[in-house]
Design goal:
Strand order of the largest sheet: 1-2-3
Order of helices and strands: HHEEEHHHHHHHHHHHHH
Helix content: over 70%
Structural class: mainly alpha
Shape: globular
Number of helices: 15
Length: 405
């Protein structure tokens, strides 16, 4: 059934927001505001695999449901769609122009620079290995293995099979190569290098976003996304477990072996580098890059500085409040939705790596107390982030913009 022309632009905006990974409650808020501005009465429900639009006309109603695969977060597209939505709300653009603008936005997202993305994945792995403390040998191979993981990202776009097994396959290959390197380089940090190489795929942000949706009362969407994120985490962990199982039958492996000899100053270099690597991965627009990197650096150091006095729960909570505040300031300055900067700040706080390490300890570390402490830290960080977002008013409905007369 064809969508009536007067509703088509709302359907198109909703689909675009979904494709680019915007949380469900924000999509519903955007669509409701756009519909109200145009004098259309509607009700909208966004779920991970479909969107339901209901439009009301006097005593009649029009219902349209569209099945859409789960989206992936694209901050550049989100920023552009937010500008487009504000143009619609301010009545600066008509329905025909909306369609053309959306085509331009979709075309922009397809402009992929594989060279930059390879460097981004490489330096995300390398800088993270510096942040958690490693040695020069492990750092160098983390760079190479991080670049290798982008090969799997590229192949996943060409093969449906690789797309389905991507998380487990990439983790398996990285683990096997890392185990072989321990045989050649005695000082190689096996566990940390595996973690650093796949850190960009560990769904810490996805888990946080899912809990954000659940907190905002989008229970179905949030629950589904939380389960999906946990499954992704276990798929990655399965790849590591399988790789270690295969290699332990061939060579001696000591996961507890650890050598750290990097100078302390390297962490101050690694933090901004890690924040910069997020930019091409999330396709952040050039005009938003500077403030995005500043937000990430600010988030990390805020949490670290406060952790000594307030503990992990209090420091993460205060850091989240501060990140929301600075994101709003940067959003007003750049006229970009604060979520673009907020996401880059939250990335530096989320406990994805700790979740993975907690799983590892559960299997390989004989100390039950150590595993319990890690899981406790994960829970505290998640609670603190969600609490900070909640108290900062992040889950409020978008305030209606005043229509210019």
């Amino acid at each position: 059934m064809k969508v009536p022309k007067k509703y088509q632009f709302i359907v198109d905006i909703g689909k675009a927001l979904h494709i680019y990974g915007i949380p469900s409650y924000k999509i519903q808020s955007y669509l409701t505001q756009v519909a109200d501005t145009k004098g259309i009465t509607g009700s909208f429900m966004d779920l991970p695999t479909w969107i339901n639009y209901v439009f009301y006309e006097d005593k009649n109603s029009y219902n349209y449901i569209e099945s859409i695969p789960p989206g992936s977060l694209n901050l550049g597209a989100f920023s552009r769609i937010d500008e487009l939505t504000n143009k619609v709300i301010d009545e600066e653009i008509n329905e025909d122009e909306i369609e053309e603008e959306l085509k331009i936005i979709h075309a922009k997202t397809k402009e992929v620079n594989h060279y930059y993305l390879t460097l981004a994945h490489a330096f995300a792995a390398g800088s993270f290995s510096m942040m958690i403390g490693t040695n020069w040998i492990s750092f160098g191979f983390a760079l190479l293995l991080g670049a290798l993981t982008y090969l799997f990202v590229f192949l996943a776009t060409k093969s449906k099979y690789i797309e389905n097994v991507f998380e487990s396959l990439s983790a398996l290959v990285v683990t096997i190569i890392s185990c072989l390197l321990t045989y050649i380089f005695p000082d190689f940090n096996l566990g940390l290098t595996i973690l650093a190489s796949i850190i960009i795929f560990i769904p810490g942000l996805a888990i946080t976003t899912a809990l954000e949706e659940i907190t905002s009362k989008s229970l179905v969407a949030g629950g589904a996304k939380l389960f999906d994120a946990v499954v992704v985490l276990f798929k990655q962990f399965f790849g590591v477990i399988l790789g270690l199982g295969l290699m332990t039958s061939l060579i001696d492996i000591d996961l507890t072996f650890y050598v750290s000899n990097l100078p302390k100053w390297t962490i101050f270099l690694a933090i901004p580098v890690f924040s910069i690597t997020v930019l091409p991965i999330f396709q952040v627009r050039k005009k938003d890059m500077f403030f995005g990197v500043l937000t990430g650096i600010f988030a990390f150091f805020m949490a670290v500085i406060l952790s000594s006095g307030l503990g992990i729960l209090g420091s993460t909570f205060i850091a989240t409040l501060a990140v929301v505040g600075i994101s709003r300031i940067f959003g007003r300055i750049s006229k970009t939705p604060k979520s673009v900067y907020l996401t880059q700040g939250i990335v530096m706080l989320v406990p994805g790596s700790k979740s993975f390490m907690g799983l590892s300890n559960s299997f390989f570390n004989p100390s039950i107390t150590a595993s319990a402490n890690l899981f406790e830290e994960v829970a505290f960080i998640l609670m603190a982030i969600i609490g900070g977002l909640l108290f900062a008013g992040t889950f409020r409905e978008r305030k209606p913009k005043k229509i210019k007369l």
